[in-house]
Amino acid sequence: MSLVDRDRKHLWHPYTQMLTQPDPLPIARGEGVYLYTDDGRKIMDGVSSWWVNIHGHSHPKLNAALAAQAREIEQVIFAGCTHRPAVELAERLVNVIPAGLNRIFYSDNGSTAVEAAIKMALQYWRNREQPQRTTLITLHHSYHGDTVGAMSASEDSLFTRAFAPLLFPVVRAHPPYCYRCPLGLKRATCQIDCLGDLARCLQENSGKTAAVLVEPMLQGAGGMIVWPAEFLAGVRALCDSHGVLMIADEVLTGFGRTGRMFACEHAGVTPDILCLSKALTAGYLPLGVTAATEGIYDAFLSEDRGKTFFHGHSYTANPLACAVAIASLKLFEENGVMARVQRLEQQLRNGLEPLRGMAPVGDVRVIGAVGVVELEGDGGYLDQIGPRLGAAFLERGLLLRPLGNILYFMPPYAITDSEAEWALQQIREVVGGL
Ligand SMILES: Cc1ncc(COP(=O)(O)O)c(C=O)c1O
């Protein structure tokens, strides 16, 4: 039996309609930006393996860090124990994340980083004797993960509807989705008027709001929506003026994806709580971080043990994952990775802008190492154009996974100029032929 036949017999894949989906790709190995299949195909990873890979697959230095750590300690309970990789990673992180976030709480994926952030915000207010502050304000088109709290915070959508009875209510405000401006305005002449909706939500929930949770600069799974930095600055200012916490979900945007090490840097803001995962370990192992200010942390310090943050996971601060994350941060320094991302951004812009105005292209958006082509129409995630495009690119040796009518290219930063140029050419040809 082939690997795919054996897979078909026992496996159930994520976000996959098992009855109608084509066979999965049998991946045998990876190197740089390429995946190699069992049956001899070489395929470029244009989605960074679900947005996690940044330095390329099977990187020798990351492999070495992982092997070295496995020889020391592979995993140990993180309540009552600590270890060098967890401490060293925390020391390195507080030096690169927005200034003021001094406390690192580990978990084990993006959804859990968000769950921990939401719980931390609510308990912060409870410990500060304001237990009535329980409302969470999020944005339309947001995606924060698939656990129940993260789903509640996400847009009410196809992804969450079946679970609606489990979800807690949140208040949702307009995002700055300029191509489909919620106010019908044009970015060239607007005053970021869409922020008014967040101001209204804060006003109407005055005294009840715990936190505003956003994906800064780039809303990912909800449509690859790129923000004007002024909106992000406005979110911070509104949180300050209403005295509520700001949570930045940088699970996707963290570690260079938007052209800055962290998306919050585009507006020079520090959130009260920051969520990280995905590229944290360069795509090697699951690890989550919820970073907080010293002010948040202080609210949990008490002689009363009931004020403890009761949250944790078996694999919290897994030493293997922490060791690879440290090695990845070193690569940023050694290889001038951020300069590479900025060059890639320019290349994506030059390569995709020619599609603007061409039917059926509605919008072209580029930020950092993400290039987006939004096609006209609004079939949403289930738009048949998505799988059709995916199949057309795969035939050419490029792995892309459009979100319905929203096509995006999000390669590892390690992609070379000529590899990126090849991929952009495929995108221009396929989209141009629609
Ligand atoms: C912004 C954002 N937050 C949270 C998550 C959830 O991360 P995970 O899939 O690791 O649970 C994702 C995943 O795509 C994401 O893009």
Shape: globular
Q: Give every kind of bound small molecule, once each.
A: pyridoxal-5'-phosphate
Q: How would you sum up the major sheet?
A: 7 strands, mixed
- SSE class: alpha/beta
Task: Give the CA-CA distance, first to last residue.
Answer: 38 Å
Estimated share of beta-strand residues? 15-25%
Number of strands: 16
H-E order: HEEEHHHEHEHEHEEEHEEEHHHEEHEEH
Give the C-alpha Rg. Answer: 22 Å
pLDDT < 50 runs, ≥5 residues: none
Strand order of the largest sheet: 4-12-11-10-7-5-6
- The average pLDDT is 97
Helix coverage percent? 25-40%
Continuous helix count: 13
Secondary structure layout plus pairing:
Layout: H1 3-10, E1 27-31, E2 34-37, E3 42-45, H2 48-51, H3 60-72, H4 84-96, E4 101-107, H5 110-127, E5 135-139, H6 148-153, E6 171-173, H7 195-204, E7 209-214, E8 218-219, E9 225-226, H8 229-242, E10 245-249, E11 273-276, E12 288-293, H9 294-298, H10 319-335, H11 337-352, E13 361-367, E14 370-375, H12 385-395, E15 398-399, E16 406-409, H13 417-432
This protein binds pyridoxal-5'-phosphate.
3D architecture notes:
The protein has 434 residues and is α/β, with parallel strands linked by helices. The longest helix is centred in the N-terminal third of the chain and has 18 residues, at 110-127. α3 (60-72) runs antiparallel to α10 (319-335) and α11 runs parallel beside α13. The strands form 4 sheets. A 7-stranded mixed sheet has the order 4-12-11-10-7-5-6, with helices on both faces. It has a 4-stranded mixed sheet with strand order 1-2-3-15. It has helices at residues 3-10, 48-51, 60-72, 84-96, 110-127, 148-153, 195-204, 229-242, 294-298, 319-335, 337-352, 385-395, 417-432, and strands spanning 27-31, 34-37, 42-45, 101-107, 135-139, 171-173, 209-214, 218-219, 225-226, 245-249, 273-276, 288-293, 361-367, 370-375, 398-399, 406-409. Helices cover 35% and strands 17% of the residues. It is globular, with a radius of gyration of 22 Å.
